[in-house]
Amino acid sequence: MPPQTSFRQALRGDQPLVGTVLTLPSAAVAEVLAEVGYDWFFVDGEHAPLGIDALVAILQAAQHRCPCLVRVPANEEAWIKRALDAGADGIIAPLVNSAETARQVVAWSKYPPEGRRSVGGGRAHGYGRTFDRYLQSANQRIAVVVQIEHVEGARAIEAILDVAGLDAVFIGPYDLSGSLGKPGQIDDPDVQAYIRDIRDACLRRGKPLGIFTADEEAARAYIDQGFVLLAVGADAVHLGNAAEASLARVRG
Ligand code: 3PY
Ligand code: MG
């Protein structure tokens, strides 16, 4: 992606964006993985032990090579503001189950008049030195991604897609499976049927669509189905798998 292209713009491009999830509170891990060639990072402030200091350190280490979307721990104004002021290329809002929540998330992410993001200086604003430039371009450059990952959200998908300012929908298969009383059973036919319904609604409406998978073949299949935003695996798992494979090769 050329550096002047925002991640928000890239979502509308014709290339799938393949990333991975960052969960470790380690700038070094983020820095190493940024050199691998991923298109983006899903920095997990929801389930991972990443406070604002760790999030900032990860952005500082990785963002010059790899755009970072921060999944906020909760759909709250304070978290969205902090993630964006820290310089995130966008936010991922977990468990968006209604149009009302989607509208709030957009409002907290966009400066007036499009929204009601609070105005203050941070890393995103060059610590004040590029304040005006950031304010003028942020609404055009920041990606607002909502997760549909609950049966309630899946049922409200059309109303959620009506909300102006959403740049992509990201399916969370694990929470979706839990909401159907089948936690972790992401291949269950009911879970798969909901994933297909969400996918079809997004494709019909031309809304960029993403999903998490731990499986590379599944990721390729999702790309073939029209998914453009893929988060494949997670840092800790990549690390463990590579070490295990290395040890096995040595021991034979
Ligand atoms: C889920 O599967 O619930 C997720 O949130 C993955 O990102
Ligand atoms: Mg989830």
Q: Secondary-structure blueprint of this entry?
A:
Elements: H1 7-10, E1 17-22, H2 27-34, E2 40-44, H3 52-62, E3 68-71, H4 77-85, E4 90-93, H5 99-109, H6 131-141, E5 143-148, H7 151-155, H8 157-161, E6 168-171, H9 173-179, H10 189-205, E7 209-213, H11 216-224, E8 229-234, H12 235-251
Bound molecules: 3-hydroxypyruvic acid (3PY) and magnesium ion (MG).
3-hydroxypyruvic acid is lined by residues 147, 149, 172-175, 212.
Percentage beta strand:
15-25%
Radius of gyration: 18 Å
Number of alpha- plus pi-helical segments: 12
Mean pLDDT: 97
Task: Specify the CATH architecture.
Answer: Alpha-Beta Barrel
Describe the structure.
This protein is of the alpha/beta class and 252 residues long. It has 12 helices and 8 strands. An 8-stranded parallel β-barrel has the order 1-2-3-4-5-6-7-8, surrounded by 7 helices. Helix 2 (27-34) runs parallel beside helix 3 (52-62). The termini are far apart. The mean pLDDT is 97.
